[in-house]
Amino acid sequence: MNYTVVLPAAGSGKRMGAKHNKLFLELEGQPILAHTLQVFQQDPWCEAIVLAIKEEERNIIKELVETYKLTKVTHLVQGGSERQHSVFEALKAAYGCQVVLVHDAARPFILQSTIHALVEKAAAEGGAIAAVKAKDTMKLVRDGRVEETIDRETLWAVQTPQAFRYPLLFEAAEQAQQDGFLGTDEAMLAERAGIPVHVVESSYDNQKMTTPDDLLIGELILKRRKENN
Ligand code: CTP
Ligand code: MG
Questions:
Q1: N or C, fewer C-beta in 10 Å, the chain?
Q2: For 212-222, what is each residue's pLDDT tens digit?
Q3: Which ligand is in closest contact with the Cα of 23?
Q4: Residues 85-110: pLDDT tens digits?
Q5: Which domain holds residue 17?
């Protein structure tokens, strides 16, 4: 089942503390962005890749797209000041697809099996998000005092990709922009629009490269994958 993927890549990577966009930092000799893009380039279900980028990085990203022969990249759109704005700009360019997947460019370890499960679930139900079960005991705390322990069986740590039937997400995103509502993921926009959002169990490997420690973990994940192949 075909889909278009929207990849927000217009961040600045402040928490990574690098001098430039963290997506150009390398894991095993390749930029994080190249790792992520190759997953979608190699997925037969993926028909188009729309990237939200910073205008000043257009040339370097064009070069990367050529170097890694990323022929599915159809649009490099200018991102915005917040991730949600970047995604919205990219969604406009993805117009016409049936299922759209939004995925952080900073999560290079997403598995094709998870992507396919998300696409199928979203096509059938409206929306589906990748998530993993919480590993720790979780408590609700206010002013430093525990109010209650939340049943861990009901708690999921949410990742991307987040997949939706395109018109549903586009409308929800447009509504959020109009209302000045800023969410931390696409599901929040869908939830407020009444779109059913289902969970697909993902892998703990699908981490976002956020701080320098994540790069160490990233190198280990790649090393383990090489050994297992
Ligand atoms: N992103 C984006 N546009 C923004 C902000 C973020 O396209 N205005 C993208 C990032 O490039 C990244 C993804 O959204 O691929 C997830 O964001 P995050 O991990 O927070 O990356 P940054 O915003 O770059 O990092 P930081 O928050 O540490 O500055
Ligand atoms: Mg950010």
A1: C
A2: 999 999 999 99
A3: 1
A4: 999 999 999 999 999 999 999 999 99
A5: 3-228
CATH number, domain at 59?
A: 3.90.550.10
Distance 83 CA to ligand 2 centre (A): 7
| Separation between Cα atoms, residue 17 and residue 65, nearest integer Å | 25
Residue 5: C-alpha distances to residues 57, 107, 133 (Å):
20, 13, 25
Q: Which residues pair with 154 in a beta bridge?
A: none
Beta bridge partners of 133: 156
Q: Is the ipTM of this complex over 0.85?
A: yes
Which tokens in the block code for residue 64? Answer: 């990367």
Q: Is the CB of 37 within 6 Å of ligand 1?
A: no
Ligand 1 neighbour 15 (Cβ under 6 A): yes
